[in-house]
Specification:
Shape: globular
Largest sheet: 10 strands, antiparallel
Strand content: 35-45%
Distance between the termini: 56 Å
Helix content: under 10%
Structural class: mainly beta
Number of strands: 37
Length: 607
Amino acid sequence: MQLKLVARAVAAALVPAVLGACATTGHEAAPTPNSLSFAEVGVPTTDAQKRAVQASDLAVIDGQARKIGYHTILRSGQRAGDGIFGELVDIHGKPVMAADGSHTISDAIDFSSLIQKDGALFMISHFESRPGAMYLSKLAQNAESGELSADWTRSIDFSAIHGLWVPCAGSVTPWGSHLGSEEYEPDAAKWNPASGKIDDYYNAMAAYTGGDLHKINPYYYGYPVEVAVENAQGATRVMQHHSMGRLAIELAKVMPDQRTVYISDDGTNVGLYMFVADKAGDLSAGTLYAATWLQLDDRNGGNAKLAWIDLGHATDAEIKQVLDAGPPRFDDIFSRAEPNKDGSCPAGYGSINTSAGHECLMIKPGMEKIASRLETRRYAALMGATTEFRKEEGITFDPATRSLFVSMSEVARGMEDHAKNGKPTGKYDAGGPNDVRLPYNRCGVVYRLPLGSDAAVGSDYVAKSMHGLVSGRMTQAWDKNSPIPAYTGALANNKCDINGIANPDNLTFIEGYHTLIIGEDTGSGHQNDAVWSYNLMDGQLTRIETTPYGSETTSVYWYPNVNGHAYLMSVIQHPYGESDEDKVGANSPERRAYVGYIGPFPAMDGK
């Protein structure tokens, strides 16, 4: 497909000139930053420590010591008011029943936001399940201590959008709404129109419609989902943003201009995306872009220039109209062909390698806009964007340095160099461009992306480059050439350096205090997942939380001032659910997930 080759050549030629003309915009030097440090939490070594939630008990803020700790607001299955937190419901709002006749409770809690409206405080929590769920909880706040508790909780109704699919991470918009996600979009290329089935992962969604998969379609799911709290009584409004593309969305993060949005794509052979809305504070229409990685070197997770491929303009309304009229099938959008024996594609077909593997596709006439929003990753690859990233996770932003931060849980698969004799080969590079050529690092990397102005895009928040900032370090258990010996004894199940990150996932930034917070999603990298504080000024990395066996740290998110108090939200997902399952019984209450926070802190927004 000539269009792809031309797009890549143009991107490679233009980026150096664009970088020179549109480097990070000048701004006054940031004032001397405030200071923040935490008492470090030790690595869990005893069985009791490995079962516990351990969090820093002291923060030093501008030289003043402050007692803090981990505080639980709710656990999955807990009743608050008339609601049961995490109970999954069907399209009629009735409980989804398990095989044994019990109500289904999800322990897969992920992003949980704090939302203020008309003097009331609410929390919106994701349950990363099929069917998915979000719960709205009304919170009470102790005015003196700042401690939070739940008055009531209830499930948010998503029947207007055919239910909710695997909501993962999220963010809070500058205008105060909750911006959620739908991760691991179902692969419509494998959808069976006769049965309505794809695979067991998708088929589980039948529970939402009472067992009938024909009432749903894979193109219904995989979008950013915004929820606005409308009043102090907790009325909610749900908006599914088809204009922003359909991906395995980890989260979308809105920049201060209220127009530019970065979107991470979780999984294998995925891309990085930027959406620029037509109007500030309105995500219902805009132009979507996908990044091309132009590698400069491969040290410390790599260093690259970025070019942005324009995927076109769309509105929620026009894509929704197509879905409401009867969603197209995959073969209505693309023609497919088998690769030639030498791995090339037949004439007229684009050769791509995405999460679906190597494919030869041709967009059918007139289906370009539909392809850009319903098959965003495949379309981006056909247009010349890079789809080689692995486990692209959290996104956060530092306004003082105008830096975006993005985590890659692993540097592996498509991010490695599988070329032979200069030709991309292997499962993850064959048929693709092999843009990313980095050394394997199973422990992952957090990247820094300086932002600047771009007149062509029409935004002052465009990433022009990307480089590794904080890298995990493999021990000899994973890399025989590592200088770090494999751990033994109580630490034997840690295959990444215990003094560094392992599989970074969610990120947040403490503005004004040069502090990046990094949460982990790791199983064998670290036996117990951790949350870290990273000081941008001196590079100091401090462990500030560890979580129980088999759990994942999710939803680290900073709130600098909620009625005079600050909070670092921290969710503990599925204890004993990813490893060490045999440590407790199948129905043990220890398996229940936690929604809570580290703090409370005094207000830390400079006011």
